[in-house]
């Protein structure tokens, strides 16, 4: 499915620009597939009914009650199968969520990893609890409470933590607060470079040393913190993120392979091809043809 350049609809885009957050109760009728593309916001969706989400290169069938998470890194489209579909949605920007210092950087959260399952089937107890969160958010959002944005962030955090508890415990490990802080800053700097949408703005931060210099720490300190928190090397995480962006651009953008190589910081297209084959086992043209 070829991506289209889709941004938020004008009304939602205006709200996100002014505030960075919107929560709603939804009731929609059966529809065809929406435009396929990357949105410039995070989405937490409580889906009640029968629908499909075309997510990257897979289709997720949400038949029942599901909690679904999405962000701007992965293209998706929705298709409503039920005659009447209900549920709730919460959309927010990275800037809106930043004041939540105790919440691990969203891109580093397992819920938003590229290879994670973004949909969770809920039982009746879980549905009641999550529905309660959304209803409270909607009610509170209509008030003049001075700190309601902080309240909304708290409920976002609660929903995320509920979803994290649905995942196996072995997916998590405890790390020192200092290391976690360093990694959060590193991941934030890494993610701020994506998605790439302008050929005149090639990737600038490409190595562990680049990030360490910007963070004003020794590269060995950064590498130790990243290894402690993620179990991976800094170089591996950077390479995986560049590969993920390269794969998305190869599948959905109308740029040439040489242009994609340039925008990702490779001096020559063959350097990019060698890197991409090492990371994926396939040459870039494989994703361009599938």
UniProtKB/TrEMBL annotation:
A Pfam family: HTH_18
Keywords assigned: DNA-binding, Transcription, Transcription regulation
Keyword match Heme: no
Residue span, HTH araC/xylS-type domain: 197-290
Transmembrane segments: none
Keyword Transcription regulation: yes
PANTHER family: ARAC-FAMILY TRANSCRIPTIONAL REGULATOR, TRANSCRIPTIONAL REGULATORY PROTEIN
Protein name: HTH araC/xylS-type domain-containing protein
Natural source organism: Flavobacterium frigidimaris
């Amino acid at each position: 499915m070829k991506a289209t350049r889709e941004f938020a609809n004008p009304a939602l885009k205006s709200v996100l620009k002014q505030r960075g957050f919107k929560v709603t109760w939804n009731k929609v009728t059966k529809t065809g597939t929406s435009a396929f593309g990357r949105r410039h916001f995070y989405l937490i969706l409580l889906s009640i009914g029968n629908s499909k989400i075309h997510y990257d290169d897979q289709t997720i069938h949400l038949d029942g009650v599901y909690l679904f998470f999405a962000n701007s890194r992965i293209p998706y489209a929705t298709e409503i199968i039920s005659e009447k579909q209900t549920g709730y949605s919460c959309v927010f920007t990275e800037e809106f969520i930043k004041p939540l210092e105790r919440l691990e950087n969203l891109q580093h959260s397992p819920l938003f990893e590229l290879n994670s399952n973004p949909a969770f089937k809920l039982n009746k107890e879980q549905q009641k609890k999550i529905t309660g969160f959304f209803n409270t958010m909607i009610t509170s959002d209509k008030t003049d409470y001075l700190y309601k944005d902080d309240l909304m962030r708290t409920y976002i955090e609660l929903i995320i933590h509920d979803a994290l508890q649905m995942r196996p415990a072995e997916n998590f490990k405890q790390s020192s607060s200092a290391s976690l802080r360093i990694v959060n800053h590193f991941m934030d700097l890494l993610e701020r470079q994506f998605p790439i949408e302008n050929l005149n703005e090639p990737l600038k931060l490409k190595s562990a040393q680049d990030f360490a210099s910007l963070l004003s720490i020794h590269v060995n300190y950064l590498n130790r913190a990243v290894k402690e928190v993620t179990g991976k090397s800094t170089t591996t995480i950077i390479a995986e993120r560049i590969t993920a962006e390269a794969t998305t651009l190869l599948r959905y953008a109308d740029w040439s392979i040489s242009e994609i190589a340039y925008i990702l910081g490779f001096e020559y297209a063959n350097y990019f091809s060698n890197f991409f084959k090492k990371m994926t086992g396939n040459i870039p043209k494989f994703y361009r043809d599938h």
